Each structure stands twice: as C-alpha cells, then as structure tokens.
Amino acid sequence: MASGDILFDSYYAHEPGGSPSWLFQVRTNKTKSGWAIVKTWCVPVLKVKQRGLAMCQPKKVYTQVKLLLAQQQITANCGLNEIVPKLWIEPIHGVLPGHGFRIDWLGMWFDVAEGVSVQNIHEFGKPPVKPEVMLELFSNKANHTEVALGAVFDLLFSQCDRHQQNIFMTESGQLRFIDNDQVYATAWRKCGIDSMIVPTTQKFMINHLGFFYVLKYPQSDPPKTWVTQPNPLLLLDYRCHVDGGEIGRNFPPSLQQCMRDLAKMDAETITREYGYPAMRMADAIRNRSRDMLEHGYEWTLLHGEPSNQPMHRYKMATACCNMEYDRNTHQYICTTPGYQQMTEIPFGNAWHGGEFNGPVEKDTGTYVGGTLQ
C-alpha cells in the first residue's frame, strides 16, 4: 500500500492496523480513483509489529465475507452507502513484496477511503497539525450530516470496533467509516455497540477519561485517576453535530423507509433476502430498525437490544462540543457551558467482560453498568 498522505501540509503514515489480515493497494477500473484496497486472509507471513500468525479459519472468513456483503446491500437500500467504502469479491493474483509468497485466491476489495484516520490527524502528523486547525476540523469543518449518519450506521448495524483508526477524514471534513466487520455476533467479545462518536460506549469513554483508567489497566493495580485534559476527538461526539444534541426520529426519508421494511420482516426473511451468515444478526437489525422508528435513536441506544454487557455500559457523559487551545499551558480546554467530566466507571472486567479479574478491592468501578441514572 501507499505509505501515507499529506493533509494540512503534514505527512501522515498509514497505520499498520491491528488486524492480522494483509491489505494491498491494487489498480482497478471499478472505482473512481482507479485504486482499491484488497483484504486477504490466511497469508502465512507476519506483518510489521505482528506478534504471531493469525489462525486461518475458512469458516470464520466466510462468515465475515457474508456479513459484509449483507451489510452493503442494506447500507445501499438505506441510503448510507456514501459514508462507507464500496466492497466486492474478486480474485487477487500477485507476489508478496519482500517475501516471495504468491497470493492467488479470492480477496475482499474495497474502494479507497479518502483522507487519513482521525487518530493520525490527532497524534501523528509530521510536523504535527496546529491545534487550532485540528479543532476547527473536528468541530466546524466536519460534515455534520456524515457524523450523524455514522452514529446511526454504528447503532443500526451494532458496530463494535469504531475506534479512531476506523474513521477517516479529509481536509474538507468528509468522513468515511471503515473496517465494519466487527459487529454483534462476530466481535471478539459480546457487544451491542462500541463507537467513539457515541456516548455510553467504551471507545467513547476512552477518549473522555483515558485508555488506562477506562480499561483498568493493569488489573492488579488499576489507575485511580483519569486524564483531565479534554481530548479533541470528543468533538466528533454525534451530539455536537445535530440540532439540539439529539437525533430522535429525525432520519432521512430513504433510511426511514428502509427501516420500515426491515421492521416488517422476520429474521428468517432478512437472512434469506440479504444473505446474513446467522439469523441472530438479522434479528438484531430488525430490532434496531423497529426501536429507532418507534422510540428514536437515544432510547434505542440506552434500552434497545442487542446491548453491551453491564461492565461495558457507561453512564451518559456531558458532551464537549467546543474547545480552545491554551498556548501558554499547552492544554486543551473545553469551553462548552456546563461541561464536566463524568468520571465514574462500571464494576467488572473492562477488557473481556465478566467479573473483575484482579483483587476485588482494587476494582475502580462504582456502579453496575446499565443503571443510567
């Protein structure tokens, strides 16, 4: 793949990512740019910084492929296809550079997402992007409609891996949501939704309070204090990009009709029509569609099914929608009236779920998750 991109006169190297699957940038006539990203599984060669070869399980690969193809059909029907890359199945033939390993099998092809990840923009520009430029991008230049649609996409499809490497932005504020195969029933842990742009989820709280505090790491002696300086990524909270801070039932007409159609079907029909690999996935999207139409987005986030485990269900934090950068202290300051950090976290094992894995008296949780008072 290309090594990186230039934004705001800064260079951003592409992250290697956490997936053990290999990605290649390939010429094609099926995209506007003339390029595609191809994801391949079962390559017996270590990636950079990869500690061990991934297990090669064709059944799991087949499940992921079917899931992504089913999602793409529904995404197109619902009018959400502009915020996620187009994908298709096609053979890939080539030799792995530097290793000589020949690849000659089917791959998952994706349209190239423009821009770079929001984590890259936040942390890794060379030279670093000016703080004022970054704040302007995340708060004002960000396409407000696309942020809101991203939040809807993540809840509708029960996305469970929307961290800051999986949202790409351009200089103009266009957003694309990538790596959409970690969802309810395929994610590595039981999950209903986990998205950095959606409050009450763990990935949101990591930006709110800091990785080590939220994950209680190390569990033998978890941190008792949190990061107090606001993270600029909090500006991508969907509530900062919709009128009144709520989506409610304010969905685009095409999305409303799509969810009506899904809500009328039973899980067996959805599975058969769209090719979902498991009926419980079809049941989940039917539930989401019905609940969002009847009760609205926020109710569905708090009370709908599938839900997160209690130790991954956080209280609602106050939105921080405006920030300034103090050049004297080199600190970010949230200037949203009434903003205050919500520092409580739930009891339990924040990594995998279940009971806290360290000494019980060391658990820094203060409430049972899902009690959203």
Concise summary:
The protein has 373 residues and is α+β, with helices and mostly antiparallel strands. The chain has helices spanning 58-77, 118-123, 131-141, 144-156, 202-209, 211-215, 253-264, 267-274, 279-295, 297-303; strands at residues 4-7, 10-13, 22-27, 35-40, 87-95, 102-111, 116-117, 167-169, 175-177, 323-326, 331-334.
How would the blueprint of this fold be written?
Elements: E1 4-7, E2 10-13, E3 22-27, E4 35-40, H1 58-77, E5 87-95, E6 102-111, E7 116-117, H2 118-123, H3 131-141, H4 144-156, E8 167-169, E9 175-177, H5 202-209, H6 211-215, H7 253-264, H8 267-274, H9 279-295, H10 297-303, E10 323-326, E11 331-334
Helix pairs in contact: 7-9, 8-9, 9-10
Please name the defining characteristics of this protein:
four-stranded antiparallel β-sheet, 373 residues, 29% helix, alpha+beta
Read across the widest sheet, the strand sequence of neighbours is 3-4-6-5
Measured distance between first and last alpha carbons: 47 Å
Q: What's the pLDDT, averaged over the residues?
A: 94
Portion of residues in beta strands equals 5-15%
Shape: globular
Tally of helical segments: 10
Structural class: alpha+beta
Low-confidence stretches: none
Radius of gyration: 21 Å
The count of DSSP E runs of length 2 or more, i.e. the number of strands, is 11
What percent of the residues sit in helical stretches (DSSP H or I)?
Answer: 25-40%
Order of helices and strands: EEEEHEEEHHHEEHHHHHHEE
The largest sheet, given as strand count, sense and whether it forms a barrel, is: 4 strands, antiparallel
